[in-house]
Amino acid sequence: MANSGKNNASHELRDEIHNQSLHKSFLHREFLTWLWYFAETSEGRFDIVTKKGPKKSAQIWMDDRIVLTAKTGRAHEHIIKGGVPSTSDEAAVALESGKSVKEMRIAVEIEDCGLFQATLGGDDITPKGLVLPEPNPNVENSVLDQRIDAVDLFSVAIDTLFLKFMDERTDKLWDTSRMNSIRNWIKTRRHEPKTIH
Q: Which of 80, 99, 110, 195 has the CB geometry, 3.0–4.6 Å to 94, for a possible disulfide?
């Protein structure tokens, strides 16, 4: 009977965690929109504190694919790819109309490590299609060890950015100054029509 009680408590805890994560899932899409804002307004520069060494500087930018969708189920998705879709008028109009980021391809350059690329989804922000820097043949670590270290470093980078977002998101100024900054960024993203002479 004692085991039955523990199992029930375990199931209840698991269900509670699952329910809480579903209720907070909007944060994933907010994070991706904030990430886009951060990349464009702060040049995407941030620092990573690693477990195995000193602090490293890093930079993030939007890569070649963004998927935007409305909160209501009736609207169509905007899939913008090729070139630099984050600077396109289509992306600006989609943001301005209230669409949120469902998925985006990002690139992260990490000091002394190289370029990382991955797709982040707004449902769970789990990286997909992760491309790692080429292994360095001039170090003692095996290729496998280097790849494991690179995956860990990329995870630390995304965790660092998510914690930065959550610090801002839970700050009392989020609903006023930060949201106003993001709204202004969205408004000023669309290119002015060129005058034809």
A: 99
